[in-house]
Design brief:
Largest sheet: 7 strands, antiparallel
Radius of gyration: 18 Å
Order of helices and strands: EEEEEEE
Length: 95
């Protein structure tokens, strides 16, 4: 059985026991969260809605992304970096 869930503006196809990395969700490690479920399926049968429960494994950060802007011949250079805050989830139940 699988489900399609939406969180952080993205959609993920999940099943029991999967680990996914999503944009930051508030909560400490070990806390349970319910995810917005778009549809569930088993084999070829699809149904709308459902319930997906996940456990927060860790709060982490993604890889650093470097932003570099330059305009040639104008002595304009800007360097900036960003690390996205992420949450690692383990899917505990799909219903």
């Amino acid at each position: 059985m699988f489900a399609v869930v939406r969180t952080g503006g993205k959609q993920y196809r999940v099943a029991d026991g999967d680990k996914i990395i999503v944009e930051k969700i508030d909560g400490d490690a070990g806390a349970a969260v319910n995810l917005e479920t778009l549809m569930t399926g088993e084999g070829a049968a699809l149904t709308m809605g459902g319930n997906v429960t996940a456990e927060i494994v860790a709060q982490t950060k993604g890889d650093k992304v470097i932003i570099f802007k330059k305009k040639r011949r104008h002595n304009y250079r800007r360097k900036n970096g960003h690390r996205q805050q992420l949450t690692v989830l383990k899917i505990t139940s799909v219903a």
